[in-house]
Design a protein that fits this description.
The structure holds two protein chains of two kinds.
Chain A lengths: L2 H18 L3 H26 L4 E3 L4 H25 L3 H21 L9 E3 L1 H31 L7 H20 L3 H19 L5 H32 L4 H5 L5 H17 L7 H5 L5 H10 L1 H16 L3 H22 L4 H22 L2 H32 L10 H4 L1 H15 L4 H15 L3 H26 L14 H37 L9 H21 L9 E2 L14 E3 L5 E3 L8 H4 L1 H24 L5
Antiparallel strand pairs in A: 1-2, 4-5
Helix pairs in contact in A: 1-2, 1-6, 2-5, 3-4, 4-8, 5-6, 5-12, 5-16, 5-21, 6-7, 7-8, 8-10, 10-13, 12-16, 13-15, 13-16, 14-15, 14-20, 14-24, 15-16, 15-20, 16-18, 16-19, 16-21, 18-20, 18-21
Chain B lengths: L1 H30 L9 H11 L3 E2 L4 H20 L4 H22 L2 H32 L4 H4 L11 H14 L27 H26 L4 H24 L5 H26 L1
The chains are: A mainly alpha, B mainly alpha.
Chain lengths: 636, 286
């Protein structure tokens, strides 16, 4: 048993133990220990195999396959019954088609197909494993504190914390399996397992809304799973292989592109791109740690991970063009729609959709530069977004609301929390931070590969992104000088992971030249067989690092000045009507009115209904063109 | 040597920017049939402001305008010293965002509306600014200003559409009518002075100086379209900058402020038509 098997199996073991322990305090300790061990195992695996990489297969593969088949059947039966019980028949139908299909393939068609590399660990898997292991364990630790407060604030929900944490660890195990496997059957199994975990977590509170949304997520992801299953059968029967690495080294001819298109559809459902995006918005009813882990940092990244793997086949093919366009429309539409949202988690969800769209564009364009940008986007997005999600989770407990409009008093409640929040937001769109570096390279890559339409989409989408993040930041600073401090308690369990993630945002920005040199460039060299350089010039990297240092140092240098400064404080100008407190003014007919300041949402322009409708139609049309091309055998 | 150039840029840019603002005020006055202030009035204003007592509504909001100034300087230095155009644009955007946050931090109704409008303006002009950078990269195969002005054919030959789009959105950048929604140089505005409402004394002087730097940045963008390796073209490029500046002054005096809907629509549509068609054609022929 080597370190990689341990890494995959340990969270599974942890999940079972956590499920069985009923005592809260004991379980919390076990969860923390297991999270730390998972993180340590991650680092050990990466340390051992990072430089050389490794691939191997298991001797007793048959037994593993049989076990997988049994678990698949059990889950399928559960899903079919749950679907029938809740009158969600489509769920049952999807499950009833794909599992027998896979079993039929497994036991009648698969003979003679030998898998030589069950597991492949290369630089890309290393990056994914690091994201899952480190961010995953941080969020587990955070969730311990969060779930305590959660059940304190929501007494009406049944306390099923052991179930919650068991599913989270099960998910980590599945996710490790997904990014480490090269055997398509195993990837498919882990893929379905993550879908199932997501379904269980969305339905955690068992309210009517939660159950409905969980089934909605399940049905869309099972639809994607069905596409995945059909793709495997096609690949297995036509090419007698079940290895992802063999598939990606084939020539992009029409027959290969059919399963590639199906796999891309599966990826689009998992990454919640238009027209499949609705499930991710519904998934926001889940407790925040699961939104942070599954619905922004890791699970939805499985979709883009698959596209990044398939990039060599997508690059110059018509399927690639179609996926690029679909991602582009998702990016633009979701960036625009985020403007009209005021619920913090909804904004984060739309921004996640948009960024996943951007990663999909980068990956499916498939040049060296664009893949460089795609992988870097995955890293930066995971860190910044999980920081934002868990900060919003804590803010919700402090303020009793996660509406952006209510966050203007956050400075009075917790200065640190607002600072973390600002770091996260800055990480998402401001200049020297990670997302913008990647966007910059992405833009360069699109120009060099002559994707003018995508360049234009990126220009508009980025401007919209700027608008909704800046107005959120504005709310956070609007009480910068607040004096009255409201008492609050901020659990250490919550603060430590938030703090570490905030530090990681900075570290990853300073360290991106190193990430590029030691991970991205070697990976792309292996993939393309030709030397690549970091796409940003050294002089620019230096300037960026200066800017970052300035942003960190400037606030520090400013603090002592205003302490001994003799400036006169004046009341805010309100057309002469300020009552003197800055909080109210003399209205007409002598009434004193409270000052309320609100952000712009521009519903008429960026309303969700209209935009979703039209962009869905557009994407469906584009995907339809793809199907026509493939059926007609015109693709290639 | 390099440091001397940088210091030179930091000192000279606001002097030229201030002078241009002075010329602007004289020309505007003549257009309105007034005598107008002396040419150096902007400098007198700033000097006077620095000597005034600073009043503020809280101790934090001036922090943002200082950072905004620093990034405007940063951006000017990158651009004028021949650095990466996109990086300069990003630094400038960072500065603008800090200026907007300053408006929020004042927590005053007029500043807040000013901030919202300013953000809307940024959203309106940003696509065209990005497309300008991209178009110049297409024409000259480099993002570096020093390479762009070292070619033999001026970029304007390839990018007439993008140039028109740029001239259109420069009205936002230079805070000219019809797109001076968030803050106008003229006293008559429905939201008092927008973001600057709560700033006074030295802080207001800083905002004024920041604007001088921004004038230089805007005109450098115009300059890049005309300048090539020959000295004559460089003179021509300066003349083009002055002409564009004069044109914006004329538009400023000849048009009324529009609603935000109109500002956003027109900027995005102009970007979509001039910018996109130019880029598509260029990529088709090159």
């Amino acid at each position: 048993m080597n370190a990689i098997s341990v890494l995959i199996l340990f969270p599974l073991l942890a999940s079972i133990i956590i499920f069985l322990v009923r005592k809260d305090n004991l379980r919390n300790i076990i969860i923390r220990v297991c999270a730390i061990i998972t993180a340590a195992l991650t680092l050990i695996v990466v340390f051992l195999y990072f430089n050389g990489g490794i691939f191997y297969s298991y001797q007793n593969e048959e037994i593993i396959n049989l076990l997988i088949a049994v678990v698949e059947v059990v889950i399928a039966v559960y899903v079919i019954l749950a679907g029938l019980k809740n009158k969600k028949y489509l769920v049952s139908i999807f499950a009833a088609i794909q599992t027998p299909l896979m079993l039929w393939f497994e036991f009648t068609q698969k003979h003679g197909i030998e898998v030589q590399k069950d597991i492949i660990f290369d630089k890309l898997s290393a990056i994914m494993v690091l994201i899952i292991g480190v961010i995953g364990s941080l969020i587990c630790v955070y969730a311990v504190g969060y779930m305590k407060s959660y059940h304190f604030h929501h007494e009406k929900y049944k306390d099923r914390k052991n179930f919650f944490f068991a599913v989270i660890f099960l998910f980590l195990s599945a996710m490790f399996g997904l990014v480490l496997s090269n055997n398509l059957m195993w990837i498919y199994f882990c893929w379905e397992l993550t879908t199932f975990c997501s379904f269980l977590l969305i339905g955690y509170t068992k309210t009517k809304e939660a159950v409905n949304n969980s089934f909605h997520a399940l049905v869309i992801n099972l639809g994607g799973g069905l596409a995945f299953a059909v793709a495997i059968v096609l690949i297995g029967m036509n090419y007698k292989t079940l290895e992802l690495s063999t598939l990606t080294s084939m020539k992009p001819e029409a027959m290969v592109l059919v399963p590639v298109f199906l796999l891309s559809i599966a990826a689009l459902t998992k990454s919640a791109q238009l027209p499949f995006s609705s499930w991710l918005l519904g998934a926001m009813v889940a407790p925040t740690p699961s939104s942070a882990l599954l619905h922004s940092a890791t699970m939805v990244k499985a979709g883009v991970y698959l596209i990044i793997r398939l990039a060599p086949l997508l690059g110059n093919s018509s399927v690639g063009k179609i996926i690029t366009l679909a991602g582009g429309i998702s990016f633009l539409a979701c960036s625009l729609m985020a403007i009209s949202q005021s619920d913090g988690k909804k904004i984060l969800a739309y921004s996640t959709l948009a960024n996943l769209g951007l990663i999909i564009i980068c990956a499916s364009v498939g040049t060296q530069e664009s893949l460089w940008a795609a992988i870097l986007l995955v890293i930066f997005h995971s860190i910044s977004k999980s920081l934002l999600f868990i900060s919003v989770g804590s803010i919700e407990h402090q303020l009793g609301s996660r509406n952006v409009e209510d966050m203007d008093i956050l400075m009075n409640v917790s200065r640190r929390l607002s600072l973390y929040m600002m770091i996260g937001i800055a990480g998402m769109f401001l200049a020297p931070f990670g997302m913008l570096i990647s966007k910059w390279v992405a833009m360069k890559a699109f120009i060099d590969s002559k994707n003018i339409l995508i360049v234009i989409i990126l220009a508009y989408g980025s401007s919209a992104t700027l608008f909704y993040w800046a107005k959120w930041m504005g709310k956070l600073v609007s009480n910068a000088n607040a004096k009255g401090h409201i008492r609050h308690s901020f659990r250490l369990d919550e603060e430590i992971p938030i703090f570490i993630l905030a530090v990681l945002v900075g570290v990853s920005c300073f360290g991106f030249p190193l990430i590029s040199k030691y991970a991205l460039v070697p990976y792309l060299y292996d993939l393309f067989g030709q030397k690549t350089l970091i796409p940003i010039g050294t002089s620019d990297v230096k300037i960026m690092l200066y800017m970052l240092s300035m942003l960190i140092l400037l606030p520090i240098s400013f603090i002592p000045i205003h302490k001994n400064d003799k400036r006169r404080l004046a009341p805010i100008y309100m057309g002469g009507g300020n009552t003197g407190s800055n909080k109210s003014f003399h209205g007409s007919i002598g009434v004193t009115r409270k000052v309320e300041l609100r952000n712009w949402y521009m519903e008429g322009y960026f309303g969700v209904k209209k935009l979703t409708f039209w962009s869905n139609i557009l994407v469906i049309g584009i995907l339809g063109v793809g199907i026509v091309l493939l059926v007609g055998g015109l693709a290639g | 040597m390099k440091i001397l150039i940088i210091i030179g840029i930091i000192i000279l840019a606001p002097l030229v920017g201030g002078l241009l603002t002075g010329i602007d005020r004289v020309i505007s006055a003549r257009m309105q049939g007034r005598q107008g202030p002396p040419l150096l009035q902007p400098f007198y204003d700033v000097l006077k402001l620095t000597q005034k007592e600073s009043m503020e509504v809280n101790t934090m909001h001036r922090f943002f305008v200082y950072i905004s100034l620093i990034f405007a300087i940063f951006s000017t230095v990158i651009m004028v010293s021949g650095g990466d155009l996109l990086l300069a644009i990003f630094a400038l955007t960072l500065g603008s965002i800090f200026f907007v946050l300053g408006g929020y931090a004042s927590n005053s109704p007029y500043s807040m509306i000013g901030s919202e409008r300013e953000l809307l303006q940024i959203m309106a002009y940003e696509p065209m600014v990005l497309l300008t950078g991209i178009g110049l990269y297409y024409a000259d195969n480099s993002f570096f200003v020093k390479d762009m002005i070292a070619t033999t054919t001026p970029a304007i030959v390839y990018l007439p559409g993008i140039f028109l789009g740029l001239v259109f959105i420069l009205a936002f950048k230079l805070r000219k009518s019809p797109f001076d929604l968030s803050m106008s140089h003229h006293g008559h505005q429905e939201i008092v002075k927008g973001i600057t409402t709560e700033y006074s004394g030295r802080d207001l002087a800083v905002i004024e100086v920041t604007h001088w730097y921004e004038v230089i940045i805007s005109l450098t963008l115009v300059y890049v379209f005309f300048a090539t390796i020959t000295p004559l073209s460089r003179i021509l490029a300066v003349v083009a900058c002055l002409f564009v500046y004069f044109f914006e002054i004329v538009i400023d005096n000849a048009s009324a402020r529009v609603k935000w809907q109109h500002a956003l629509n027109s900027a995005w549509i102009v970007t979509g038509i001039f910018g996109s068609i130019n880029l598509v054609l260029l990529s088709f022929f090159r």
